[in-house]
Amino acid sequence: MDYDSKLSRQVRDLPRSGIRDFFELVIGRTDVISLGVGEPDKPTPWPIRDAAIKSLERGQTSYTSNLGLESLRIAISDYVDQLFHVRYDPKTEILVTVGVSEALDIAFRAVLNPGDEVIYHEPCYVSYSPSIKMAYGVPVIVNTREENEFAILAEDIEKVITPKSRVLVLNFPTNPTGGIMPPEELEKVAALAVKHDLLVFTDEIYCELLYDGRTHKSIVEFPGMRERTVLLHGFSKAFAMTGWRLGYACAPAPLREAMMKVHQYCMLCAPIMSQVAGLEALKLGASAYEDMRVSYEERRNLIVARLNAMGLHCFNPGGAFYVFPDIRSTGLTSKEFALGLLESKSVAVVPGTAFGTAGEGFVRCCYATAPDLIAKAMDLMEEFVAEVRARKTTSKTPALANA
Ligand code: PMP
């Protein structure tokens, strides 16, 4: 059968995730040190797991309200207020979702009409462009640059705004660069959103993971922003809960209501045991993740120092758990570097191009990995870089020798 002709054009034309594609190469290999998939190396803190186990023992295996457990929405409201100084009504403005992934998908589907433009920054998380396309929107990319520490500039956003611009998507700290937004620039971006009447989706999934004593400021905190912002957050990263598939969206009631309609038909509700676990996570708050955050900061210091020492220029990211070293000095493309490193040294990193064309010349390393493994991976990468550089020199030598 000609299955191609049976598929939705929208889906057929989507690329597969560059991260997953790359990691098919790694699956089943026990010899590989992976700095690849972006997830914490530690399991979910025990009290959170225990709460879920106890709920199963009590027989809590039913659906919940489409919106999510009310107790969890109340806890989310308090937690979000604590983080962002913005209060959302648990009854009308909060929706519990299956991760930030689902929250993003239903947010796009709730607001976009075919042809509406969505502005976002690249390099960025792999799902933004496909999620926009699946909602019949048009992705509009603003490249961020290392010289600006991968922050998005208001002047660059303004250049791409058209009458069709509907949504601006922000993610700071950013996957894959670890970039953060200076508050003065964020303020300019907020003013732009108000001026051009844009909705803003802010993906706050890494907001707890900040280093060097930084504190987080979200765009929702600026004047005129609460009414036009959909705030997306979840439990995967800070609470080390990737496998529980739990997140949430906070938004003004009409937007939350539209998202809820999509959610109730495609998902019904997030799993009850995950919601119970999430409630426990929020009860613990920062005490559940502060040790992990401190250890990520130490690992960031280690990996940034090692990369720079081997001549791979690496900007010191202020948040998340990724570094994005510049590998152009090796003369290899991102893909050649990642494949070569995997083949010759069994170390897995992700080519920067998996996060958009602006990622060419960079690779992403996730440092939520044990420090001894990071050190070993860095030893191997240093060998690889030295070998590549030596090859580059010898390939030039014959000409010199003849001279
Ligand atoms: N947004 C960003 C920026 C991410 O990095 C990720 C996961 N890597 C997600 C969203 C999806 O997170 P979740 O597990 O909550 O679906």
Gist of the model:
The chain is of the alpha/beta class. 44% of the residues lie in helices and 12% in strands.
Description:
The chain is of the alpha/beta class and about 400 residues long. The chain has helices at about 5, 10, 20-25, 45-55, 70-85, 100-110, 130-135, 155-160, 185-195, 255-265, 270-285, 285-310, 335-345, 370-400; strands at about 35, 95, 115-120, 140-145, 165-170, 200-205, 230-235, 245-250, 320-325, 345-350, 350, 365. Strands 2-8-7-6-5-3-4 form a 7-stranded mixed beta sheet, sandwiched between helices. Strands 9-12-11 form a 3-stranded antiparallel beta sheet. A two-stranded parallel ribbon has the order 1-10. Helix 9 links the parallel strand 5 and strand 6 (about 200-205). Helix 4 (about 45-55) packs antiparallel against helix 11 (about 270-285), helix 6 (about 100-110) crosses helix 10 and helix 12 packs parallel to helix 14. The longest helix has about 30 residues, at about 370-400. Residues about 400-403 have low confidence and may be disordered. The structure holds 4'-deoxy-4'-aminopyridoxal-5'-phosphate (PMP). 4'-deoxy-4'-aminopyridoxal-5'-phosphate binds next to helix 6.
